[in-house]
Amino acid sequence: MSSEFLLVIIAVVAVTIFVAVFYIFAKKPSAPQTEPAASSKKEIPEIKEEAKTEPVPEIVLQEKEKEIEAVTPIADQKPPVANRRKSDYTIPKRAVPEFGKITKQNFSEFAGERILVAEDNPINQKVLVGLLAGSGIDVVLANDGQEALDILEKDTRFLMILMDAHMPRVDGFEATRIIRANPQYDHILVVALSGDVGADDIQKMKSAGMSEQLEKPLRMESLYKIFYAYSTKEADQEAVAATLLDAEEGIETCGGDESFYREILSEFMRDYADSAQRLGELLRFHDREAARALLLDIIGVTANIGARTLGESASELKLALGDTDEKSYFTLYDRYKVQMERLMQEIREYLA
Length: 352
Description:
With 352 residues, the protein is an alpha/beta fold. Among the domains are: 104-240, Rossmann fold; 247-351, Four Helix Bundle (Hemerythrin (Met), subunit A), CATH 1.20.120. It has 15 helices and 5 strands.
């Protein structure tokens, strides 16, 4: 066999082997490309399942809210001030009749009541405590609005709060707004203490929730009327109306000399204790001139001893004597007689 023929055979075999190898690799399946996707498909459902939550029906939410409200104490349910109407905390108030002269003793009618005084001025505190001393009214002091709020958190047994409008830390306006926002304090009256008496100032106090206003310096009659209007205790109206002797005014008229004043009272009793009887006789005998002279005398004397109410009654009777209708001045005479008897009793008690 020639060498050329051998080379041809080797070349054919090599080509055959190459073709066979190429065919094998060309037909071999490639690695699946969907496995990572399959893996992703397994992970995605798991993530969705973890984030998925069932919606709570509205009716279930409403029932849950009712359950929470049922177990929440009323004191903790504090609606904002803006959502509260004045009618939500309106405190019963009774009509105040006309009174005579008010003294410290009249406040004893409200013995047992408790008031909170929020006032930062020590002198004003002392005046209020002194005014109500011996009355049986319990006075609790707070030096500012915050201190008043701290006291209320521990003790709510108060008839009223006398609230100074202008104080450090928490002023009276802010303290009142906080008080009015809490239903736990609905029974407590808030009374403004302020020297501001302008219409805008008073409206600001009412807007904050202050139901009444007392002007500084405090007047005894004004404070008494507040007590009378809101206290549930029965006041002795007859005793108040019968107060006809203003000893302080009488002493001031006598230059501050009480001994001299007591001397004047004794002389008044000696000279005018029977004035009602004498006046009645003059009227029955139609001696109007003599009756006018006696009444003019009494008008002057009562002004000196601090008995202005009786003096006013005497003035009205004197003017009525010019009326030809006798019934008009006899009616005024009856009032004068009753007042004179009461005045004499008060003078005797004062001199005792």
